[in-house]
Amino acid sequence: MNSELPFRIIFLTLWIVFLTISYARKPQQLGSRAIWERLKEASKWESKLDIALRVALFFFWSAAVILYVIYTDWMTHYVLPLPTWLRWIGGGVAIVSLPLLAWAHHVLGEQFSPSLRLREEHILVTSGPYHWIRHPMYTAESVFMIALAVESANWLVVLQAVAAIAVLYERTCKEEVMMIERFGDEYHAYMKRTGRFLPRFKDSNQ
After folding, report:
1. Which of 96, 126, 134, 143 is most deeply packed, by most CB within 10 A?
2. CB within 8 Å of 127: residues ≥ 6 apart
């Protein structure tokens, strides 16, 4: 198990950095009161079931982190046979994704909300990474989770990553409907010149 120690340390460190970037501005969002408030404020774009599912996934991810880092003997049942070099690459990719996540959060600023909702004074952010990608935060999060799953070489973490990315994709679709309803032609024009998750290098019908 000594060979796993560096990977466990990297895994835990990256997860802590990820949470710090995601919730540094509003750490209270992780509290039970904030979660309850989000459930009460469910909208036509995001149901209570959607919110509950995202909260459940967060706690499942937290459980996977604890199990992988602490209960190493038990987690050997879920080992994924990946070469060591690939796991190191996974760790490197996870690290690279974090600056994009931090950049997206910084540029979005007070416009960020864990729930699908718009403020009265909400504006369409098109600067920073949003100049090229409509959802750079989701891109960074998806890359991070895939890379972290590879770094861990653990089926339990892989399943968590797949589930989380599926939820993110569904959220993206609902978010775009919400943005179109609010910003109309402005958002349609924005969609034409940007990619959803990756930069648009040529015209397409996406």
Report:
1. 134
2. 107
